[in-house]
Amino acid sequence: MSLSVLTIVKNRSAHLAQLVEGLRRSDVLPDELVIVDMGSAPPVSIGETPFPVRVVQLDLPGLPLAAARNAAARAAMGTDLLFLDVDCIPMRTLTDAMANALKKQDALICAEVLYLGPDDARGTWQEDDLQQRGVQHPVRAFPKSGIRKEDNAGLFWSLVFGIRRMSFFDLRGFDDAFTGYGAEDTDFGFRAKQEKLPLLFMGGTGAFHQHHDSFDPPLQHLDDIVRNAVLFRKRWNIWPMEGWLEAFEKAGFIAREGETLTLIRRPDHDEIERARVVTAW
Question: pLDDT tens for residues 219-264?
Fold first, then answer.
């Protein structure tokens, strides 16, 4: 058994450096790190590490999250895959815990994420300090330790999750019909449930989410979210990202009637900036 850690990145070199530093401190090092570069400027460059690192260049427009994760999985050599968003710092016990969990059961396993403030994990840091500073997600409850089954496929998140490589491809990976930002991970969780691959929440280890600018609602991704929401609705007969769609609707950017979603107008720069928030859920 071997574990490949996979991440995708576009112009987040500082976040990527801290992710790599977290892996360097792991109790059990990963067998490799695969990075898919979605067009960073300058291109991704990683210094010496105690584990192999491979960088895959993906030449697609925008932010092709689904296609990038699939490219990372195709490039991976490990029997097990640990996906980490580039703004996540893995805890030192994460790689070992995920590898052991995937040996015991064929499942989709999400690990807990603690959210850091603007001044946390900038420069040097100690994990015990980040544990004290990190804040739990308000709607995703993880066990204090061990693993529990989660029946709500909509709670799957792609920030930190593990899956056997064979199972990933049995699910056909992420559907790259979802282009850009939004709903591709929820669709993946729904298909896992449809194929009876259990969703498990693992407590006691996970990752720290590095703070960055965020927007509520994410107006800068309006076109992607509208397009992907329509595709998701046709496939699953429900609207994804309901909170964001409601906010778009209330502000007059979209209109919904039954299964129909219409883009009314796009936000200007000032409207996007007014949506900027401090928290990074």
Answer: 999 999 999 999 999 999 999 999 999 999 999 999 999 889 999 9
CA angle 70, 136, 218 (to 5 degrees): 55
Of residues 119, 121, 89, 115, the one with CA closest to residue 24:
89
Q: How far apart are CA 12 and CA 172, in angstroms?
A: 28
- Give just the sign of the alpha carbon dihedral 44, 45, 48, 52: positive
Q: pLDDT-derived band of residue 281, with 50, 70 and 90 as boundaries?
A: very low
Q: What distance lies between CA 7 and its chain's CA centroid? A: 9
Q: What is the pLDDT of residue 168?
A: 98
> Mean of the per-residue pLDDT values for the chain?
94
Given the structure tokens 């996540």, which residue do they identify? 88
Residue 192 has pLDDT above 80, yes or no: yes
Collect all residues with Cβ–Cβ distance below 8 Å to 262 and sequence separation of at least 6. Answer: 254, 255, 256
Q: How far apart are CA 90 and CA 202, in angstroms?
A: 14
Residue with tokens 């790599």, as numbered in its chain = 20
Distance of CA 110 to the CA centre of its chain: 10
